[in-house]
Every structure is written in structure tokens, then in C-alpha cells.
Amino acid sequence: MANETSVTTTYDGHVAIVRFTRPPYNFADLAMIEAIGAAFDEADADRDVRAILLASEGRTFCAGADLVNANPVAKDLAPGARNPFYVAAAKLFGVKTPVVAAVQGAAVGAGLGLSLVADFRVAGPDAKFVANFVALGFHPGFGISAVLERVIGRQRALLMALTARRIRAEQAFEWGLADALADDPFEVALALAHEIAAGAPLAVASTRATMRGDLAALVEAQTDHELAEQAWLQKTADFAEGVRAVAERRVGSFRGE
To answer: What number of CA atoms fall less than 13 Å from residue 82's CA on the CB side?
Structure first.
């Protein structure tokens, strides 16, 4: 059924396979992000799980949030309150088990952010990574403004953020946004997850915690800033035009208002 969210977990040895689907575009909403978070919590609590494979069903990894019909950050909040969507998003970055993502098709906006939760990304030949926010008259969210540069460097992250350029699989691999290319990204991602799971689990966890550092806290703080910027930008004529343009599949005509 269209727009019905489903997140399931299956197991392949020491690897937990977390699959999400919300047809037809796997739009990210609060229910989906919270369900993925619950699956991550379950994996973290299971001593037999040593790696997580994050994957989605369909042709699109995740097309981001549906800003046209169900914008998860549109609601005005009381002073000091945190947006539940970003609370759930920030929680994902605190997962303690190593994560490998299999990315097919588009990882756009919040979908890009979801792919950045993973330690590694395996991209299919049709994969594309897009920070499309300025094309909507919007500010990046999901912690992307903090995490993306940690993966590909400041200049490349700035280029993606300010141009909304589509970074296709081969360029993503060259930049380090994808760690491997594969005709079947799921199978290659599963093999990488098993390779991680073959290591001594306490040593893997300790090393990852050291190298991941304060990422979860950084995302939590950054999503608060991102939300504040998004709040005022959503009231602009440019944002309204950007959303219309996306719905009508055209380039926006912006006036700086």
C-alpha cells in the first residue's frame, strides 16, 4: 500500500539486516525513522549481532521527506522544544553497532542524511546522492550540514549543499561518499557487514567508538540549528516556490523573498 511504512529485521549470521519501505519513494517520516531507530536499539542489545546492514525496498533508497504533502519539520514548536523527527534522526547516529548501507537509486535530502548514518555505503550503478535543499529554498537538515563534510571534506560538502548537484555513483566513489560500487549493492554490502562481523567484537566496538567520536552529540546540536534556520525559511516566498517547482518537476524561479 502506498505510503505504508514497514521496517523489518532479519538475521544472517552475526549481521542484522534492517530493511525499510514506504512505497513508492521511501519518503522519510517520523514513523519510519523511529522504527529504524527501534531496530538499531534491538541490534545493539543483541550480543550475537556484530554488524547491521541497512537497506530499502524498491528503486529508490530514500527520496527524503515529503515536503509537499507531509513536511515533518513544518509544525511550529514551543520555545525550547525539539522537533520529534530530528530527535529520532539524531538518535540513529548514536547506534553502537557498525552499519553498512546498500544504496540503490536516489538518496536525496533526508535520504542522504539516512545514508550518512552508516559507517559505509555501497552504491548501485543507478545511485545518486543529492543535498537538494537550496533548490527548495530550504536549509539542510538531518545533521547533513555537520556530517557530510566529515565524509567527503568541506569543499565537496559545500559544493553539494550550495548547488543541489546530483552526485552519481562513480563520482560518489571517487569522493569517498560511496565505499564500493556494485551491480548488486545489497550483496556487496552484506559481504562487507560480514567482514566487519568477523573481527573481535569488543575490539571492533572499541575502535569504532573511538573513531566515531562525538558524532551523535554533534548531530543532536546541529539539528537544533538546522531546524531554527528551516523554521524561518519555510515562511519565505522562495520556499513556497521551491516546493511548487518540485511538485511540478521544474526549476524554481526564486526572488530572494
So the answer is: 16
